[in-house]
Design goal:
Blueprint (H helix, E strand, L loop, with lengths): L1 H37 L6 H39 L2
Length: 85
C-alpha cells in the first residue's frame, strides 16, 4: 500500500512537470510564430541576391588566400626538410 502511494505521488509530480513544461513550450512556439510573421523584416529578392553574391565572392577570395598560404608553407617546409637529408 505504501509503495503504491509513492508511485502515485511520483506519477502526479511527473504529470505536473510535464504540464508546466509543455505550457512553456507551447507559449514559446506561439510567441516565436508571432515574431516570425509580424516583427521580422525579410530581405527583398534583390537584397537577397546581393548578399548571396557577396558571400560567394568572399568565400572564393578567402579560399584562394588559404590555398596560397598552404602552398607557400608547403614549399618552405619541403625546402627546410631537404636541408636535413
Amino acid at each position: 500500500m505504501r509503495y503504491l502511494f509513492s508511485v502515485q505521488i511520483i506519477f502526479i509530480l511527473l504529470q505536473f512537470i510535464l504540464l508546466v513544461t509543455m505550457s512553456k513550450v507551447s507559449t514559446y512556439l506561439k510567441e516565436s510564430y508571432e515574431e516570425l510573421m509580424h516583427k521580422v523584416t525579410w530581405p527583398t529578392w534583390s537584397e537577397l541576391q546581393q548578399s548571396t553574391a557577396i558571400v560567394l565572392v568572399s568565400t572564393v577570395i578567402i579560399t584562394a588566400i588559404v590555398w596560397l598560404m598552404d602552398a607557400a608553407s608547403s614549399s618552405v617546409l619541403k625546402f627546410i626538410y631537404s636541408l636535413f637529408k
